[in-house]
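[retry 2/3] Ankyrin repeat-containing domain protein: previous attempt timed out, resubmitting with same input.
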Amino acid sequence: MSPDSDDIYWRRANQTSQQLGPTALESAAGTGSLKLVELLLDRGAELSPPADYEGDSALARACMREDLALVRLLLDRAASPNPVNPRSASPLSRAAAMGDLSVILLLRAAGAEVSIGAKNQNPLTAAAMNGRLDVVEYLLGLEKRESVFKDAIEKAEKALDGCHAEVVSRLKRFLEEQHPRKWSRMEKVS
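[retry 2/3] Ankyrin repeat-containing domain protein: success.
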């Protein structure tokens, strides 16, 4: 089968969610089926068709599964490390929410940017909201947007009724140490 085929199965493998839901590649990545993803890619499935109803690419779905081998395969096959869904979440923010540093490091090595996406869907906020202290520590020095720090603190404080106090404390300490002017402006606004 080839991309030029009129075969109904080939067309379905590459149809978008606006037509029928997630593509076969997105679904296979979402279930962690490495062999099926490999087969679909070998047969010409597109890595970056228009996003599904949630906007999550095959790479983002693999990141949510914390599947290092699948993430590596998709990146090796030239998946973009920086697509964002309609809510501005990237594969890196999905991986940060899950807390798998090995996936995060692989994405960063492939060029994933920390400072993409809306402030509430960025990797630092995603990690903070989910209590991923080790990921927060890794991302602290990489994020440069002032609004993101404040958002990460607010979201972490609200998450699970304040169960992420250690993350909030670390974010505040980082701001006090590294960005005293930014921190004093944030405190005045709060």
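[retry 2/3] Ankyrin repeat-containing domain protein: The longest helix spans residues 165-178.
[retry 2/3] clearing retry counter.
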